[in-house]
Design goal:
With 262 residues, the protein is mainly α. The protein has one domain. Helix content is 81%, strand content 0%. It is globular and about 55 Å long.
């Protein structure tokens, strides 16, 4: 009965994460244009929360669960998580056909102001999309641990950062000429990727409890890669490095207090 209760809580978590992502996408469809300053502040705050969650709620618990006999699992897991997202970043196909921005003769984008800006937007959207699955994996895996407080902390952290990320997914697509239906489809697909990650993470953790430290560390490593490779550089690319940095520090402190009281 207790396991069933945990399973139900995990399902609520999965639905909540998907809803938060869709909420952000809906706001993005309405607002259409987010000032870079506030976008960088939001993402900086979320990066700080994710950084703390990856260390305090994923990697450190993995070290504690592994113990002296399984000391190798956390570092191997973190390295595997980093490698997994880096590999996905390299092998994922280009998004022109998915978004409806088909190339014209010579590879030009007929509906966009500049190929380079279009490529940057699509690559950034892809980076957000591909890390949704390991994010969901992180939330699902932690629900198999003994500390449910960590599970809720990770879920709350991801849900909070899903809202601005959902906005960032659809708003740039609309700005480069992607139609509303296709932008909505991308937003829904991103939310479903995270829900699938939560479900798979829970199932994997339940089946492979011996390897739970490594699996948890994989999710933490994936989050670290996304923070360093995508989120922080994006918040420092529009001239608002200082407020983004202050927001990151605020996110770290906020996450510490959430972890303390949840």
């Amino acid at each position: 009965m207790k396991a069933m209760t945990v399973f139900q809580q995990m399902l609520i978590c999965a639905g909540g994460l998907g809803f938060a992502s869709l909420l952000g996408s809906t706001i993005g469809l309405v607002v259409r244009r987010i000032p870079h300053r506030w976008n960088d502040i939001f993402l900086g705050f979320c990066a700080g929360m994710m950084l703390t969650a990856s260390l305090v709620c994923l990697i450190m618990p993995a070290v504690e669960m592994a113990g002296p006999g399984g000391w190798w699992q956390p570092p191997v897991g973190v390295a595997a998580g980093v490698f997994l997202v880096a590999l996905l970043d390299r092998i994922m196909p280009h998004l022109h056909h998915l978004t409806g921005l088909d190339c014209g003769p010579g590879g030009e984008e007929p509906h966009a102001p500049g190929n380079r800006s279009v490529d940057r937007v699509l690559l950034f959207v892809m980076a957000i999309a591909i890390h949704k699955f390991p994010e969901g994996l992180a939330a699902g895996v932690v629900f198999d641990g003994a500390d449910m407080g960590n599970a809720y902390t990770v879920a709350i952290t991801i849900a909070l950062q899903n809202i601005p990320e959902g906005m960032v997914v659809v708003t740039p697509l609309l700005m480069i000429g992607v139609s509303y239906p296709r932008a909505i489809g991308v937003g829904i697909a991103v939310a479903l990727m995270e829900i699938a990650g939560v479900l798979l993470g829970y199932l994997i953790g339940d089946i492979s409890s011996v390897l739970l430290p490594a699996i948890t560390a994989i999710a933490g490593g994936a989050m670290l890669y996304v923070i360093s490779d995508e989120m922080i550089p994006e918040t420092h690319s529009h001239g608002f490095e200082k407020p983004a940095t202050y927001a990151l520090v605020a996110g770290v402190m906020c996450m510490l207090y959430i972890q303390m009281f949840v």
